[in-house]
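Entry 14. Two folds queued back to back today. First construct below, sequence then structure tokens.
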Amino acid sequence: MGSIPLVSSIGAIAGSRLATTASDALLIDVAKLLRQTQIGLVVVCNPDMTMAGVITKSDVVRQIGHCAGNACQTAAADVMTQQVTFCRASDRLADVLLKMQTQGLVHLPVIDGDGKPVGVVNARDALRLLMKEEQYEESLLRNYVMGIGYQ
């Protein structure tokens, strides 16, 4: 049977989904970053580039509702979620997807051993790979049972 897919197996696409900002960045700039990248989550970083928190599109909309347009001078650190659920490249993708489902998350930051963000897992990407892996294993089993493979 196939190997157990890890987060690292979607590392390239997870890396391409990573958008970061400094904790002192203005919320209006975070909103622009979200719009430009078409990604639903921005990782907020400390000066040493470790993850301090995350800001989602929902966080921005909720906060800007309290501001007067461009006059919103709120810092990212004041809006971000600080207790962040995250994963590592060595985590099993199925476990990460289950964690995302149980917590109602669409995006999950991937951090390295130093606490620095290296990517963002999207639930759709994880599910797509797991389904592909499952279909491959199913075809191997079918071929074996029908006497086609493993001769």
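Second construct, same run, same settings:
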Amino acid sequence: MDQKLKQRLEEESTYSSHLKEEMWAQIESQLENGSPLPANSIEGQLNNTEQPHGKGRKRTMSIIKATTGLAAAVIAVTAFLALPPGEAFMKSVQNWFAPEKKIEVEVEGNKEETNGQVHVNEESRYAIYYDKERYKLVQQDGKDVITTIDPLPEPYPQVSLTIEQNVDALPEKLAAEIAGKLADQFTEVRDIEKVSEPVRGYRIHAINGHDRLSEIITVYVTSNERQGSFILTMNYFLEAAEGHGARFTQTLEQFKVLAEE
């Protein structure tokens, strides 16, 4: 846990290397012996740093922003260490993932940048970013469903990416069960594939016909890093395979299982 916090601080902060190391040294001291973490110790270093002359107000404001940001980070870590273990874990998870981030996707051969919105499911212990300008995330029957902000007009089938967890079945067994059920519902079910992208696990692909509106379902089954599995189900149609289908697949590249503390 402490290594992940350190990595996050190093990746996301813009402070100088010696300040990062000093900050982490104090955090490690708190982790090891429970001693207080004096927020003003590092902040003081920033305040006492000599400023080059002639840089003007812009330089001054930069120092103020850095001081404020670092002080906030120290306070946040101090609060984290004071929480009960389980609560501290989930609080830290929220901090590991920025609320939004830019994500590059490739659709129909063209690359574009999308605005990703993070969703952290504390109960199922996973996180995912999705395109907030095209999709919304809703709860349906206890499952997280990413679907279009506005329903598609008739006669188009609805499209969605559903995330659910089975805490009792391992991926290989569950994939075989899902393939068997799909064989009763779809005219064509391909052989189960073992894959490493967009997630590591198993892929089941099924389609009903070859018309432009023919329904397609692609299911990925991946480990929940315990004794169960996550089932990631993409529903779309043939004409949307290179649109919504491609977007959902790349959304799954942002899927992260949160391991137990």
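Quick look at the second one. Residues 9-15, 41-52, 60-70 have pLDDT under 50 and may be disordered. Residues 2-95 form one domain.
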